[in-house]
Amino acid sequence: MPTTLLELREVGKVFGDTVALAPTSLAIEEGSFVAIVGPSGCGKSTMFNVIAGLLRPDGGEVVLRGATITATTGHVGYMLQKDLLVPWRTVEDNITMATRLTRRVTDEDRAEARRVARQYGLGEFLRHYPSALSGGMRQRVAFMRTLVTHQQLLLLDEPFGALDAQTRLEMQEWLLRVWKDTGRTVLFITHDVDESIFLSDRIVVMSPRPGRVVADLANPLPRPRGIHTLLEPEFIALKARVLGLLHGGDL
Amino acid sequence: MRRRVLLNVGVPILSLLLVLGVWQLIVVGGHVASYIAPRPRAAITAVTSQWSTLWPLILGTIRETIYGYLLGAVLGFALGVVMAKIPVVQRLVYPVILVSQAVPVIALAPVLVIILGFGIVPKIVIVTWIVFFPVTVNVLDGLGHVDPDLKNLARVYGASRWRTFVQIEVPASTTPLFSGLKIGAIYAVTGAIIGELAASEGNSLALYQEHANSNLNTAAVYGTTIVMTLIGIAWFLLVVGLEVWSTPWQRRSVARRRWRRGADDPTG
């Protein structure tokens, strides 16, 4: 029986006169891949920042494995569209950056960084500085950095939003492979409907003014997925459904 | 690589030689009297022929410059950090340091002599006075422009403020920090010479020049000026060297092999 990893209980946030996120409840199962899709201003990033502990919600609680973590940091992995690699550190040292920010980096930490980098196609670039890498490579490094935090829950906020379509598809397949290998739980923000369907077990559709969840859909598409998935009738049907929800049902 | 060295070293040397050439041309071509402007060679000879007298004086100037500079750099950095971190301190201190720089240093020198007497201390204070300001302003600016997303990322990871400062904020500010250090380096010698003019009882490079001037030894006046300039340039280049050495990622795409044990263990 799947266990609940993360639970939002009536979490809401208001900035001035704007309801960024109406009181929202959401439960995420351990090991699942949940996509959150919605236009800008729907409160998805606000929700992420609340879960990450960067924002204190006006009400409600964030519960991880049964313990309240509301407005406290250090409980999740977190990655943005901006890779946020530091230019003064090599790929290897960027991967261990999260560790370096909390304690001394050990030889074991470095060995692990090298191992995951080699396993997922970055082995030749360990001693490179980020400036020498392409956008896709940089996002891989940023994801490795998120991975070696050993947090079960990974929050990915449009991580491939700045990549070209070809690279994005490669990265999506790559991400699915890493996710399958590592058994982490992923919460993935995107405004790209195709991406949300291609990656997830479940799609949470959000809507702005006020930011809120309007639908929570199971994704029945079988795994493993590949380019062929994009042409399945179920894919098209689900896409029509999500687009309909996003555009007020006038599809 | 060789081409780059040629460009980075050869061209600046060429441009300095060009300055000497123009100088020579003006003096010779314009029939300028030697008591107004000597030829470059005469100025250089004026220095080399008096080298045993000049060398201790040069060392003295270098010593004042180094002590004052190091003190100014450390003080400037510390002040920049405290001001960046504590807004009240910034509001409180900024006007004061602005006023400190608006005071003409040359007018300040006699005051310092009254307070600190002769000797090396007032010279060091003047150099420090000049050097700390560009360092503080640039550090303040650099720390204020660290990507807030990067600082948030550190927070999400559970980083302490201290570790965020050391691992993120300081390295992210190296470029402005070195801008401040370089500006300070080029002004440091000026500070030392002003100090020597106002507060020398015995011998100093600045007084040596004054003596040469009153003896109408124009070649020595020019020669001493060249020496002072060279000290400033050497100090500046040293700081540039430190910057190049400490920021390899700005020129290299791959890091050099590390000395740390196990870092390159292929079995890792």
Any overview of this molecule?
The complex is a heterodimer of chains A (251) and B (268). Helices cover 33% and strands 25% of the residues of chain A. Chain A has 251 residues and is of the alpha/beta class. Chain A has a domain of 149 residues: P-loop containing nucleotide triphosphate hydrolases (Rossmann fold). In chain A, α7 packs across α8. Chain A is globular and about 50 Å long. With 268 residues, chain B is mostly helical. Chain B has a domain of 148 residues: MetI-like (MetI-like fold, Orthogonal Bundle), CATH 1.10.3720. Helix content of chain B is 79%, strand content 0%. Chain B has 11 helices and no strands. The C terminus of chain B is likely disordered. Classes of the chains: A alpha/beta (251), B mainly alpha (268). At the A-B interface, α3 and α4 of A face α7 and α8 of B.
Keywords, separated by commas or semicolons:
heterodimer, A: 251 residues, alpha/beta, Rossmann fold, six-stranded mixed β-sheet, globular, B: 268 residues, mainly alpha, MetI-like fold, 0% strand, disordered C terminus
Question: What is this structure's SSE topology?
Answer:
The complex is a heterodimer of chains A (about 250) and B (about 270).
Chain A: E1 4-15, E2 18-29, E3 33-37, H1 44-52, E4 59-64, E5 67-68, E6 77-79, H2 91-95, H3 97-100, H4 107-119, H5 135-147, E7 153-157, H6 165-182, E8 185-190, H7 193-199, E9 202-207, E10 212-218, H8 233-246
Parallel strand pairs in A: 3-8, 3-9, 6-7, 7-8
Antiparallel strand pairs in A: 1-2, 1-4, 4-5, 9-10
Helix pairs in contact in A: 7-8
Chain B: H1 2-29, H2 40-48, H3 51-85, H4 87-102, H5 105-116, H6 120-144, H7 148-156, H8 161-172, H9 174-199, H10 205-214, H11 218-246
Short description:
The mean pLDDT of chain A is 93.
| Alpha-carbon Rg of chain B, integer | 23 Å
At CATH's second level, what is the architecture of one domain in chain A?
3-Layer(aba) Sandwich
* Termini separation of chain A: 37 Å
Measure the end-to-end span of chain B. Answer: 33 Å
Runs of chain A in which pLDDT lies below 50 for 5 or more consecutive residues are: none
- The global form of chain A is globular
Sequence of secondary-structure elements of chain B: HHHHHHHHHHH
How much helical structure, as a percent, in the residues of chain B? over 70%
